[in-house]
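Hey all, quick one. A colleague (J.T.) asked me to put the KG4 job into the tracker so the inputs and the structure tokens live in one place instead of scattered across chat threads. No bug as far as I know, just bookkeeping. Sequence used:
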Amino acid sequence: MKILAIETSCDETAAAIISGSQKDKKSGLKIVSHIIASSADMHAKTGGVIPENAAREQIKSIIPVIKEALGSQEIDAIAVTVGPGLIGSLLVGVETAKTLSYLWKKPIIPVNHLVGHIYANFIIPKENEKDFVLPEFPLLALVVSGGHTDLVYMENHGKIKYIGGTRDDAAGEAFDKTARLLGLPYPGGPNLSKQAEKFIERNKFKKLNLFPRPMIDEKNFDWSFSGLKTAVTREVTKNKNLNEEDIQKFSAEIQEAIVESLVEKSLKAIEKFKTKSFLLAGGVAANKRLREVLQARIPTSRDSGKVPRTKLHIPEINLCTDNAAYIGAAAFYNYKPLNWEKVNANPQLTITD
Ligand code: KG4
Ligand code: ZN
């Protein structure tokens, strides 16, 4: 089965074709084509996404991006992100997908963007095909994106239970907002992470504990990141003229506060739920430090005998941030076509909807 997937929830216009058969349900999915047009450069000029601008760019890109992903291939179904996201952006993808479904008489599968992120872990990475193993259920998935931080328990495909999440800002939002306070350009997360890397290179064993990790010792699986902005503002105003080195140091401190909070609660959840797999997903999963610390801590805690054998899965970096391949993967494993007339954009969708 070949699925054409379309993703337009924010500032990326993406289309992909994924291919899978019944037997691939056990081994993972292959990407046939994968196209992304991003309007991030335009948003860098305004320091963030202006929804009207993002939607206008979606309209310009959607047809060329789909055409390029399709080439001369025949497809069996269409998958599309219906939410959450920016309404103007979502509508471009949803209405295009509905039109194609009607014209081509192909089934259409609506996909929740947050659930989609999780399915990046079910795609065979191009760079490291032979080491790939499909996640096993039951699993825990931590979705860390620009607008959401959700920890969920999945008994199986389509069976998602909310375990915890952020009480205020999302992890990606914390990266983006504090990056802006340091004067770093949009998109904040990857730029702050680059600055942090430079500091870590020079100070490999330095303890980074300048900023608070709220709720870290609480028993729940929730986070709070909004206080980080206040703490960073306080430090930044104390140091009026930040030089390059200060920026690198603050970046490393911010990154460590976010990463440690995410990792500690993840380990607690693994300890409690004892799932077979733990999946990292969402744009923040591209963060090198978060990937490294999780990789280091999950086997360590397993060796200590405290945590049962939980295998960590992290998608290839280019599948972490928004793209259409994981939307196709989510549709493949949760194949529930709807009549095109019933498919609607819903910007408020939550991960369990
Ligand atoms: O999933 P995503 O691409 O879009 C949303 O659905 O929101 O996530 C984007 C978020 C942004 O907040 C961005 O700053 C963050 O992911 N991000 C990163 C990195 N790459 C992307 N944050 C930290 N380090 C990175 N390398
Ligand atoms: Zn996303």
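Adding what we noticed when we looked at it: The mean pLDDT is 94. Residues 244-273 form the longest helix (30 residues).
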